[in-house]
Amino acid sequence: MRYRHGGAVVTGTYIAERDGMAVIRLESGYAIGASPQRIEVIGHAAEAPPAGAGVVVQNPDLPEVAIISTGGTIASRVDYRTGAVTSQSSAGEILRTIPELGDVARYRDREVVNILSENMRAGIWQDLARAIYDEIRQGAKGVIVTHGTDTMIYSAAAVRFMLRTPVPVVFVGAQRSPDRPSSDAAMNLLCSAAVATGDLGEVAVVMHETTNDDRCAIHRATRVRKMHTSRRDAFQSMGSAPLGHVEYPSLTVNLSDEAVRRGTEDLRLNDALEERCALLQFYPGMPSSVLEAFKGYRGLVLAGTGLGHVSTDWIPELHSMIESGTTVVMTSQCLHGRVCDRVYGTGRDLLSIGVIEGEDMLPEVALVKLMWVLANEPDPGRVKEVMQINLAGEIQRRSI
Predict the structure, then answer these.
(1) In angstroms, what CA-CA distances link 10 with 35, 40, 48, 305?
(2) Which of 86, 187, 345, 394 lies in the 20 to 30 Å Cα band around 146?
(3) What is the mean pLDDT of each successive set of 10 residues along the chain, which is 400 residues long?
(4) Does residue 97 have an active-site annotation?
């Protein structure tokens, strides 16, 4: 509708009346509040484009990429009933909003779930890995997974452990929904499509590298972390450099020597996960009684202080858990650097009761790896050995 407010004429959508003010979302994507008594409806906005407008043109000469949708901000719009951002767009709808994708590849789309990423769980990770495996078997030259950013690092790492892939598998999200003027969704998706058709041969996360619309970084799935709640450059490679970059708008992909190349690995799926695992961050004064909640769990990852410590009061309780069959892995809250429990007395005591040093694994990645190892390693005696072997780039030869 068109509205006159004072001397100005604006076009927008009436959302609701809140606190005595009318909330109108403008065509620009921003919302304004105005006194209802001062607003005059003066006409309708231009008609919406016909159905089918903006459909991506599929060029049969381009490689085929599968887009697998799970929801999240990248697939969200404002819900005008509540004024909140909710996940409600399918993969097909995403394609229709960014017709430039048709210049990079041709696409088929598949929806695994349509949720915000705080609702992710291990069973969905398994469904996702199976869907990716199925799409690659059916001939996809690359796979793009649209995902909410809050828990994308867990999902990407889980898929990396469950799946060996000869083609790029690219996780992508958005910090700001596509209907916002400052959205990063379109650029992230276009850069992801460039990676999905390129020479990469592993699972990666592709997101803005800077706050500007100039390039995206390609992060290894097991070495990336979301480091800011809302900035467009929130994702960073931890303890290592990114696998490469995508220049924008040229969509030129530059891979580092560390990146696994297309065709290096054979397609293989090992999708078993042990869900009775947990991640616990220690804080000073945290009572050992909290460990009661995890009795009976198969695995526990601790995010300890510094080189990998918890209070000495915890050692008897942890010893009891390990004796009862719980695998305990120590990581560090520091995020950079390596766990070493041989420096201080507390660390040596932890090693003596059977706590496993998590090397320089990120706590979240160590959790996902432990879930995978416990479900796939039949010999309990080898669990420690496998947890300390680099399987998917999660452990660096040298910490930086």
Answers:
(1) 14, 10, 17, 55
(2) 394
(3) 67 62 60 70 55 61 95 68 57 74 93 92 98 98 96 98 98 85 89 98 98 96 97 96 98 98 98 98 98 97 98 97 97 96 94 97 98 96 96 89
(4) no
Within-domain flag for 57:
no
**Domain span at 39:** 2-43
Residue 326 bears catalytic tag: no
Residue 186 to residue 202: CA distance in whole angstroms: 23
Structurally, how many domains does the chain consist of?
3
Q: How far is CA 4 from the centre of its chain?
A: 43
Q: Do residues 246 and 106 both lie within one domain?
A: yes
Residues 153 and 76 in one domain: yes
Q: Annotated catalytic, 86?
A: no
| pLDDT of amino acid 205 | 98
| CATH code: domain of residue 256 | 3.40.50.1170
How far is 174 from 122, CA to CA, in rounded Å? 22
What's 323's domain CATH number? 3.40.50.40
Q: Are residues 373 and 334 located together in one domain of the fold?
A: yes
CA angle at 367 for the pair 376 and 275, rounded to the nearest 5°: 60
Q: Degrees (nearest 5) of the Cα angle 125, 131, 136?
A: 130
Residue of 146, 184, 222, 226 marked active site: 226
Catalytic residue among 70, 141, 146, 149: 149
Q: Is residue 56 part of a domain?
A: no
234 and 292 belong to one structural domain: no
226 is catalytic: yes
The pTM score is: 0.85
Active-site position among 109, 127, 134, 150:
150
